[in-house]
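For the sake of transparency, this paper describes our internal protein records without simplification. An entry from our holdings is shown next, in its original layout:
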Amino acid sequence: MPALPVEESERRSGPLLDHLARRMRLRSESVLTPLGLRPRHLVALTVLRDSDGISQQGLAGTLQIDGTNVVGLLNDLEAEGLVERRRSPEDRRRHVVILTATGAKRLREAECALAVAEDEVLGALEPAERDTLYDLLRRATSGRPLNCAEAAAEEPDTTC
């Protein structure tokens, strides 16, 4: 199926979102590095805080990463004293991972640093506009993915 022509004047959000995400990612990495964290560490610490302890297998599933990779991730975090692995009282073959007090403190520091980074990246927007952007992004990411073929099938008069 040949691609349908797209008018040059048509506005596309993808490149702008990609550019904004790249700016946010670079700025985030620069504020996390002094804290000894990488984005994947931050995500894991956030999941652990919100779950109040989770099995290694459950963490791997939540993060959607391979079990071997979660072990490496936890090794990094445990070496810094940010998490602790304990044997599950219900099943001694399993480990439960918990956030330590040091990990909770480092996570708070990282969240404050990221708030500053976000203020810098989104500085051109007013607070109400940031709220709107957040709401729109939440709505866009929570919806069912729809590709061009599906959109065309649902709305035959629409071109992608």
About this structure: The chain has seven helices and three strands. The beta strands are 54-55, 83-87, 95-99. The first helix runs from residue 14 to 32.
